[in-house]
Amino acid sequence: MSYNIAIDGPAGAGKSTIAKSVAKELEFIYVDTGAMYRAIALYLIRNNIKEDEQDKISKYATEANVEIVYENGEQQVILNGENVSGLIRTEEVGKMASASAKNPAVRSQLLDLQRALAQKEDVIMDGRDIGTHVLPNADIKIYLTASARERANRRYKELKAKGIDCYLDEIERDIIARDEQDMNREIAPLKQAEDAVLIDSSYMTIEEVVKEIILLYAKSK
Fold this sequence. Notes:
This protein has 221 residues and is of the alpha/beta class. The chain has two domains: 1-28 and 123-221, Rossmann fold (3-Layer(aba) Sandwich), CATH 3.40.50; 31-121, P-loop containing nucleotide triphosphate hydrolases (Rossmann fold), CATH 3.40.50.300. Helices cover 51% and strands 17% of the residues. The chain has nine helices and eight strands. The chain is globular. The two termini are 13 Å apart.
């Protein structure tokens, strides 16, 4: 029987980084659902679809075949046969992913793949609605968050390290706007599941958060 860990939370909370580390420690498969939504967002951008064109998003999203494969233990995101893992982490793609994630056609397309993976494998899955919608019966549910300023600061440092010009206040405004959109979308909005454990990582290291989740796992066994 498979064991599932769900991690939800707002943009920039460190969900992917934490989930990858926990997956490695527990030898689970890590499923980055956000990357799947970003792949569809990239396809929409390539087809010049705007964030508010929901009818076109519905139509074009069905043309985007997204797959998750593993190479040397690392997750790779495949869009219509192309490895796009290195192309989906831009701010532009992130904004489109947030806008298109509320579209029923987009969500339906990815839901089956996510649930099928969790049914047959021990997985740790992160996103916005994993514990509330995708895997409501997950063995452990985490709601990982941090202050908007701290999340913006982390993103600022990440972009600066890559030599990308950016402004902290602008990133923070984008994060707050994305939170508002994610929390108020009609379909599966971002919220903490009633049985989820809240972890505020504002003043925690990655190692401390990972340790806390692994402790929760050990107690559940």
